[in-house]
Structures are given as structure tokens and as C-alpha cells.
Amino acid sequence: MTIAKVGIVGAGTMGSGIATNLGQHGLEVVLYDSRPEAVEAAIASARRFYARQVEKGRMSDEAAEAAGARLGAAADLGAMADRDLVIEAVFEDFALKADLFRTLSDILPERTRIATNTSCLRVSDLQRHVAAPARFLGLHYFSPAQINPVVEVVRGEATDPAVIEEALAFCRATGKLPLRCRDSYGFAINRFFCPYTNEAARALDEGLGTTAEIDAVAKEAVGAAAGPFFVMNIIKPRINLHAIRNLSPLGPFYAPAASMIEHGEADRPFAIGEAGEIPEARRRAIADRLLLGVFLPVLQALDEEVASPADIDTGAREALRFAKPPCALMDELGRSEVTRILAPALEGYGVPTPAALARVGSLRS
User: Model confidence over 237-253: pLDDT tens digits?
Assistant: First the structure.
């Protein structure tokens, strides 16, 4: 099936960014939101993006005008009935999404593909609220969706394999880099990104370093373009806390840190000053904690066959801007060093030793 007409439900940051990307790549898009003003703002934002692309020499005036003309507003969900694909991009609340999918099931013909942009809810759980669930999948775009190249393509328990192949082709046709993922909490990338930010908060709580020191060490430890507290302030502590809490079924290691709860529930940004000179012992302790937050979830995800080592590293590099992606970094450090870094969690939380630890040194082979 060729996807030419797309509907997007939810015109916030993610819905707007997805629409901007699709319009630029020749697809006809209609957006719906319970707040009509949000749709107007999303379309205006897309057209401003296209205008900036023209200024930078990346689009012609004609291409920008055509892209903007491909974006339209839907007065109600009934306008989605003629779409080839409908992407849900509403707030990360299971009941809200489930109710939406039940409504869409009454509106959309069975040929219409339905995707959720959820970042951490299980696709299979949402799929149970969709009629003809074989057409349902996860398409998790990373923010900002109009720029970030990565999309996790997630197969639910009932998803038809042919639908996944269509989605992979769709992503490539719209300039995206699709990562094939098995359904699991956090999928491939948030599975370790959320614990990485949470371990940063635990390190802060335990006095291992200040926010500025932890951010500075993160740039060295994983080659991050920006440290975890800086990134959390951009994506909002409230949203990050919500994503971490959605990983709670994975066990106590994934429980949110005290400062994460404090800042998330208040939606208060973390104060970040200057790092100054960081003593070497302090630097090593912070790095160990951050690497623990990355390595343990990645090894567990490999045990669960959520994604391949190559795809996990591609996502880390392209979506998160980690210059030292986790599987390659573990191979470089070696099994003995990775085992040492994991020890506090394996002992303190009673976490079973991941079977993939035995493959460290050749994960990417």
C-alpha cells in the first residue's frame, strides 16, 4: 500500500513537527486537535519552518509554497476517513489514547493504517483498543520531528508484518531513518535515555556532583552534545518524569529519583551553573553512574531482542547526539570494565546479570 494522504490527531509540538516533515516530502496532511487554535498555530509554524529553509537555500520558494499548501485543518475526526495513515500524537496518557483509538475505529475503513507516536507506552496494550488491530503500529518520532531523522517503527503483538514493511518504506520516503523495534517499555532509545537522565538525578541527590558537573562529565562519558540536565530542561522535567514513570514495570532500578520527582511534579527546571574544575575521583564517580544508566537498560533490551546493537547505536548517535553510542562504547571498554560499572545495580537492586553481558567486546560484530 502506498501512503499519500496522512491524518494527524494532536497538533502540539510532536504533531506539528510530524506534519511539517510530511508536507515537505510531498504528502497531503490534515491535522485535528480538540483546540482549533492549536491546528492553526501548527500550520503557521510549519510555514515559518519552510520559509527559513528557503532563506538557508535548502528549499525553493515554489517548494515551500507547495509544502505549506499540503497542510490542512480538520474540523472533526470524520475528516480522517479518507486517509491512508492516521498518526496519533496526543498527550502520553493511556486512557486518552485508548479512547481516541476506539473512536477512530468507528470512523476509519479497515484499509487505513493507524499509528501511535507514543514514546513509552506499549503498542500492544494500545492495540487492544483498535478494530482490525493488524493495521496498528508504533511510529515514534523524535523531537524536533521536522529535523530529527530517527523514527522507531514498533510492531505490536497483532501488527501485520506487511504493515511494518510499509511503514519502513514510508519513513525512508519522508527522509527519516527508521529503527525496527520490538514492542517494549521505552522501545530502543528511551529505554536507556530515561534511566540515563534518572541516574544523573540520583547522582545529584547523592552529592556526587552538581548539575553543571554532571552535564560536563556526560559530554565526555557518552560524547553527549548537551548534558542530561540541560536536555531535561528543554524537554520539560514534567514530561521526562512521566516517561520515566512509564518504565516502572521494568523494576525498581527504573523508579524515579527524588529530585526527578520534585522537579517533574513542579515542572521546575533544574538550575545549572558553572562546572569549574572537577576532581578526577569525582569525575570518575559521575561517569560510572551515567554509564550505568545507559549500559544496564541497553543490555536488558538486547536480551529482549528489542532492537539490534547497530540500530541502538544508530538511534543514540542520530536521535540523541551521543558521539559514543552504547554498544560500541561497551565493546571498547570491555567486559571486565562494564561488569564493574554494572555492579552497584546488580547488587543494590537485585537485578539479574544480563545475558548480553557475555557478548560485550563483540556486540557490534
Answer: 999 999 999 999 999 99
Asked whether the bond before 144 is cis by omega within 30 degrees of 0, the reply is yes
Report how far apart, in Å, the C-alpha atoms of 91 and of each of 11, 130, 207, 292 are: 10, 18, 34, 30
**Residues sharing a CB contact under 8 Å with residue 57, sequence separation 6 or more, in sequence order:** none
What does the alpha-carbon distance between residue 259 and residue 56 come to, in Å, rounded to a whole number?
41
Q: How does pLDDT run across 149-193, given as a tens digit for each residue?
A: 999 999 999 999 999 999 999 999 999 999 999 999 999 999 999
pLDDT for residue 1: 77
Give the model confidence (pLDDT) of 31-65 as tens digits: 999 999 999 999 999 999 999 999 999 999 999 99
Q: How far apart are CA 231 and CA 270, in angstroms?
A: 10
Q: Is the pTM of this model over 0.90?
A: yes
What are the respective helix, strand and coil percentages of the chain, to the nearest 5?
55, 10, 35
Residue 236's Cβ-count burial label (10 Å; 0-12, 13-18, 19+) is: middle
Q: Among residues 143, 252, 260, 280, which one has the least CA distance to residue 211?
A: 260
Question: What is the rounded CA–CA span in Å between residue 49 and residue 44?
Answer: 9
Q: Is the dihedral of CA 301, 302, 308, 311 positive or negative?
A: positive
Q: Report the b/e string of 180-218 with b at 16+ CB within 10 A.
A: bbebbbbbbbbbbbbbbbbbbbbbbeeebbbbbbbbbbb
Q: How many CB atoms lie within 10 A of CB 224?
A: 22
The answer to whether residues 23 and 42 touch, using CB atoms and an 8 Å cutoff, is: no
Given a contact cutoff of 8 angstroms between Cβ atoms, the answer to whether 42 and 21 are in contact is: no
- CA Rg value for the chain: 21
All domains in the chain, ordered by first residue: 5-182 (3.40.50.720), 190-359 (1.10.1040.50)
- Please give the Cα distance from 152 to 15 (Å, whole number): 16
